Amino acid sequence: MIALIQRARSASVTIDGSRVCETGFGMLVLVGFRRGDVESRLDRFIERILNYRMFADANGRMNRSLRDIDGALMLVPQFTLAASTDSGNRPSFTPAAAPEHGRMMFEAMEKRLRIAWPNSAF
Description:
Layout (H helix, E strand, L loop, with lengths): L1 E7 L2 E5 L2 E6 L2 E7 L9 H10 L3 E2 L5 E3 L1 H4 L2 E6 L21 H18 L3 E2 L1
Parallel strand pairs: 4-7, 7-8
Antiparallel strand pairs: 1-4, 2-3, 5-6
């Protein structure tokens, strides 16, 4: 499992000119799954994301988590995060989970997040 986490004032996803998802201040999380990733590790992965201290406290220090600020979270699947770029100019997607497995993992993560963090968008 791999995630690219971005603080965001707002985030949205548009597909074919139609906005399908949007959220407010919090995190945009692009998530990719690799071959061998297992569902039993999702809870720990989610906890780490929710508890990363990447928001400023009253003193301007990065000391608050998404939970601390009651922020929004947008989760977006992104299989290209699992690419290998070790050689050449063409990435290899061999390390990425098969599409069916990646979809299953994303849906399982989405289900868990709906319970763990109701302020989520997918």
